[in-house]
Design a protein that fits this description.
By secondary structure, this protein is of the alpha+beta class. The protein is 59% helix and 17% strand. The chain contains 7 helices and 4 strands. A hairpin with a 2-residue loop joins strand 1 and strand 2.
Length: 145
């Protein structure tokens, strides 16, 4: 079982036919039919009753719909997470600050940054002296700027 097979399966479920699913997926109809047959073979169970050109979900097909949707959501989330990190849209920002700076200007700066970068997690760590701030910095890596 693979993501393409699940995608094609859900497309048929949503479209109501292999022909319409193939059109929506921009693939040839035999590709969708073959993916469904392979998925059924891999699972060892029929997912559709075939009555002429109509497909009706079997009990096994009904059981697969929710988990297949969950897998597809998980794959989309994985892709979005990687894109967010690579595009600098997400990630984590850790700030080390002395108490004198933690109210002003830090709160205004954090608020502006958070508004512009809503997918970045922000945390603030207290430091008593400038030396403590330096100790909280991670070691430099060759790729860090």
């Amino acid at each position: 079982m693979d993501a393409r097979q699940l995608k094609y399966f859900l497309a048929v479920v949503d479209a109501g036919s292999v022909h319409r699913a193939a059109e929506l997926l921009f693939v040839a109809q035999p590709s969708v039919s073959q993916a469904l047959r392979t998925l059924e073979r891999d699972l060892g169970s029929l997912l559709f009753h075939r009555t002429g050109r109509r497909l009706v979900l079997t009990a096994a097909g009904h059981a697969l719909v929710a988990p297949a949707r969950e897998v597809m959501r998980g794959l989309e989330l994985a892709r979005a997470t990687v894109e967010a990190v690579d595009g600098l849209l997400g990630g984590e920002l850790v700030i080390a600050s002395m108490p004198s700076q933690s109210i002003s200007p830090l709160t205004d700066l954090i608020a502006a940054f958070a508004a512009a970068n809503p997918l970045v997690r922000i945390s603030v760590r207290a430091a008593s002296t400038p030396a403590d701030v330096g100790k909280m910095l991670p070691p430099a890596t060759p790729n860090s700027a």
